[in-house]
Amino acid sequence: MNISIRQVLKIIFRLFVALFIFLIVIPLIWRFAVQQYYGRQIYAIDTVPVAPVAVVFGAGIGRDGTLSDVLRDRMDVAIALYEAGTVQKLLVSGDNRFENYDEPGAMKAYAISQGVDGDDVQPDYGGRRTYDTCYRAKNIFQIDEAILVTQEFHLPRALLNCRQLGIEAVGVSSDLQPYRGIKWFSLREIPATLQSSWDVIWKNEPPIMGDVVPMFD
Q1: For residues 10-30, average pLDDT
Q2: Is the per-residue pLDDT at 24 higher than 80?
Q3: How buried is residue 5: exposed, middle or buried, by Cβ count under 10 Å (0-12/13-18/19+)?
Q4: Structural domain of residue 196, as residue ranges?
Q5: How far, in Å, CA of 117 to CA of 113, rounded?
Q6: pLDDT higher than 70, residue 18
Q7: Burial of 195 (0-12, 13-18, 19+ CB in 10 A)
Q8: Conformation bin of residue 166: beta by default, left when phi > 0, alpha when psi is -120 to 50
């Protein structure tokens, strides 16, 4: 059977459209659906329900250990929740895979410098990804209920991970100022949300686990 060049081009065009829908449109629709569904679990700092612990996600530190603007705002909101008695403890989770780079240690040091009792701050040195933080919060630190503290662009994905992994989680936004690169962060959430959905389906262990360390007796 002879196929004309025009027919071949039509087939290629249809394949291109199908690939575009698969790679672009479906992730956009899924991201929107996750935002709408989990957005109902996002509260203001003065209306969020009481919970035992606030989970704070790492977001970069400088060479001297200073917190990035994004991370400092997350910590400030978590500290405000602690001071108000909304939470009893803080789980500060971040990356510690490289020498001289310790997000959880810097986060804990900052909390202590702001008056938080060091015994009430639990560092999680295995929180390389949002999924890892939520998985370890549930399985290492035995957390069943928590307030997640991060920026609004990140909260729907964080809530998806933690709630699907068995934590009764709600969120509080830590958007205290405009952030450089916020458009990039928001765009990155589109494929990241799709990846998170895959992660919670399979519930694979993160690369770093360890002994169980319950935050509460």
Answers
A1: 72
A2: no
A3: exposed
A4: 5-202
A5: 9
A6: no
A7: middle
A8: left
Tens digit of pLDDT for each residue in 142-159?
999 999 999 999 999 999
Is residue 207 one of the residues assigned to a domain? no
Residue 164 sits in a domain of what CATH number?
Answer: 3.40.50.620
Better-predicted residue by pLDDT, 123 or 99: 123
CA quadruple 163, 164, 167, 171: dihedral, nearest 10: -20
Counting Cβ atoms within 10 Å, is residue 73 exposed (0-12), middle (13-18) or buried (19+)? buried
Closest CA to 216 of 118, 115, 90, 56: 90
Torsion, CA 83, CA 40, CA 131, CA 174, rounded to 10: -40
CA distance 116 to 203: 33
Domain-embedded: residue 217:
no
Give the pLDDT of residue 110: 98
pLDDT confidence of residue 214: 96
